[in-house]
Amino acid sequence: MKQFLKYTLATIIGILVVSFVFFFLGFGVLGALLATSSSPLTLKPNSVYRIDLEGNLVDRSEDDSFERAFGEVYGQPVLNMGLDDLLANIRKAKEHPDIAGIYLNGGSLLGGYASMKELRDALLDFKASGKFVVAYADAYTQANYYLVSVADKIFLNPIGMLGWQGISAQVPFYKNMLDKLGIEMQIIRVGSFKSAVEPFSNTEMSEANRNQITAYVHSFWNEILNSVSEARGISTEKLNAYADEMMTFQASEKNWSYGLVDSLLYADQAEKFIENYLPGKEKVNFVKHSEMSRVNEGIHHEKEKVAVIYALGGIDTDAKGGIISKNLVEEINKVAKDESIKAVVLRVNSPGGSAYGSEQIWHALEELKEKKPFFVSMGNYAASGGYYIACGADSIFAQPNTITGSIGVFGMIPNIEGLRKKIGIGFDGVKTNKMSEGININRSFSPEERDLMQGFVNRAYELFVSRCAEGRGKSVESIKAIAEGRVWTGEAAVGNGLIDGLANLNQTIALAAEKAGLQAYRVVEFPAKEDFMTRLMKNFDVESRILKSHLGEYYDTYRNIRNFKHLNGIQALLPYEIIVN
User: Fold this and answer.
1) Please, what sign has the CA dihedral across residues 536, 538, 539, 540?
2) How many CB atoms lie within 10 A of CB 335?
3) By the 8 A CB rule, do 50 and 105 touch?
4) Of 66, 387, 532, 570, whose CA is between 20 and 30 Å from 79?
5) Mean pLDDT across the stretch 167-175?
């Protein structure tokens, strides 16, 4: 027996030693690969920047090789394309003498319409230099077709698909499921349009919510129609008629005959066509996105800076991501103290979240505004708490298809009395005071408790409205007239005074620099991006990576449901489970 235990122990130790050796060898190889991938790249003359339109379009890129590895293992590759990197690379490609054009390959990039417009604007700016843009895909989603419609030539596979059917929006509802479980969601809110709680209390959209969704869906569609009409020379009436035919499932030849694409080609033929744009029709040298990121943009010696502070995701609603108000306040304070930073742009892409967290961020930004110009650039959404943190800026800019507003708050506490009775759990206890056991999940609110909660929510709403009124230089009454939790598009928000104008991030940075009187400056970003190894050691979350690999684009829906357990206190939150197709 002793001999058996000795050999068993030796085997276990051997396995552990080998595992550690391979683990650190793996890191060594990975480190060498990372070092290679970060080395500067020298371009050949007449190169073409190739952008593969696939994966998820996010505001900021993150180096996450492990996430890709998990995706490959589980058959669902995960790739995040950073809008920041894409914009920087397109700008470099425009200015670099060795880049002749851009090749947009594929049509399945997932992202909001405001982000797509930001990217589309950059491509239009690139074309203004006289360089070409060519697009090819086996299949285009509608959002991707909107993006590539700026191309000089659009090619589609002879048996490919092109999404063109108009826009719809869907809201998932969970009330019937909760009823079956015996769970009642007790909701207190201010604002008839404050619909973030409806999935838990209704089985269909309220009339107010249906009205606001109808308004912004039609606004989105009009922006797409007008942009594609201008780019392709097709009237909006015809484009609407084509959408009614649902071009997605029409024959490819029809997309060509309608002028939606220029030719039906295979991938190799499309790549061969690009040679026509090059001197002597020479062989194309494609530069991948990762390679373009390694091309030096030039040395910037300017001492004066414009800071871009990124506020991305829910505010204190996700323990594993999003905006952590305490951390963001620290970054804002750091920027405020840096005398070399002369102007600040807050980039907001947030559906909101904690009212408490939003107030802390608002306060820090007010302190910063006393020292330097403060502008806001809105992404896909800057609503509810996302608008709360933006409202005090000197100037606010958004895209026409940004979702903003949603000035309202709510509180939501589950009552699991029905569930516990179903499974046979009871409670008994003692208390010292009348309200000692007040507001708990084991029973429904008493009338007095509901009044207390409503008063709490009302005070949060009045504070929110007063912050907006102060920041926008309006009366409380005028803000309330456009508040009530109502969602507005960026285009509508210009008209009602919630924002100052329509502009993308780069344009907003230029306007902030102009306000600060800067002629030459460099842009610095906060928070600083974490390198790969830091992210790996800090956030090796295997469960989330596997789920993301399996669920793909549906992972966000899962995450939103999961995050409701983190909703502590009063929330200023957008109904961001809405799925826009």
Assistant:
1) positive
2) 23
3) yes
4) 387
5) 90
The candidate with the shortest Cα–Cα distance to 219, out of 120, 110, 117, 151, is 117
Pull the structure tokens for residue 228.
Answer: 């594609």
- In our burial notation (b when 16+ CB lie closer than 10 A, e otherwise), range 94-112 reads bebeebbbbbbbbbbbbbb
Is there a cis peptide before residue 527, judged by omega within 30 degrees of 0? yes
| Distance separating alpha carbons of residues 329 and 336, to the nearest angstrom | 10
Residues of 191-220 as b/e, b for ≥16 C-beta within 10 angstroms? bebbbbbbbbbeeebeebbeebbeebbebb
Amino acid at 8: T
Say which residues have a Cβ less than 8 Å from residue 289's Cβ, sequence separation at least 6. 49, 50, 51, 52, 81, 85, 86, 89
pLDDT at 363 over 80: yes
Dihedral angle computed from the Cα positions of residues 144, 146, 151 and 155, in that order, rounded to the nearest 10 degrees: 60
Least confident of 196-200, 274-278, 322-326, 508-512: 196-200
Q: Which residues of 174-190 are buried (b: 16+ CB within 10 A; e: fewer)?
A: bbeebeeeebbbbbbbb
Kindly report the backbone phi and psi dihedral angles of residue 101, in degrees, each rounded to the nearest multiple of 5, phi listed first. -175, -175
Could you give the angle at which helices 355-369 and 447-472 cross, rounded to 10 degrees?
20
Q: What residue ranges define each of the domains in the chain, with the CATH number in brackets? A: 47-165+246-292 (3.90.226.10), 305-430+438-580 (3.90.226.10)
**Look-up of token digits 């008493």:** 446
Mapped to the 3 state alphabet, what secondary structure does 478-536 carry?
A: HHHHCCCCCEEEHHHHHHHCCCCEECCHHHHHHHHHHHCCCCCCEEEEECCCCCHHHHH
Rounded to two decimals, the pTM is 0.83
154: pLDDT strictly greater than 90: yes
Q: How far apart are CA 534 and CA 544, in angstroms?
A: 18
Q: Which residues contact 388 (CB under 8 A, 6 or more apart)?
A: 352, 355, 358, 359, 361, 362, 407, 464, 467, 468, 572
Q: How far apart are CA 261 and CA 162, in angstroms?
A: 9
